[in-house]
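Internal tracking record. Fields below are filled automatically when a chain is submitted to the structure queue. Please do not edit lines marked as system-generated. If the sequence contains nonstandard residues, flag them in the REMARKS field before resubmitting.
Queue: standard
Priority: normal
Entity type: single polypeptide chain
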Amino acid sequence: MFCRISLFDMSSPQATIIAAALASVVVVAGWIATHALTLQREREAREHSDRREKEARRAELLATLHFWLQTLVVQTDPGELKRLYYFGGAMKELAAAAARFRGWATDKARFDQLNYVSNMNPPALDAGGVDARRDTVCNALLTFIEFVHDA
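SYSTEM-GENERATED OUTPUT FOLLOWS
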């Protein structure tokens, strides 16, 4: 009734079938393990690449913010500061660097709130008075720098 198979009583076709089944199981298990390890390695590579990209964008934004802070903080003439901000490239460079980093910011609402420094209109620039233009811009830049360091 029952079929007993002994390793010694096995015919050649039965041995071939059993060997092929065992080989197939080993191959499939190997493929699954290799596939899982490859997916894990690719995920880790993407995460590493994303971290490097975020740090590069952060460094670029911080360099731009620090450059313009150092450039604008020494300006004592409110007219020259306004010219540098609007026509000297500060507003344009700050906006471009902030736009490249915005996608990496975790708190986008706070980022947008602090990023007003890159698109201040003249009434916002002169909110504290014409003589306080430098303080207005530099304080906004310092606050933004602190946020980007922690972002």
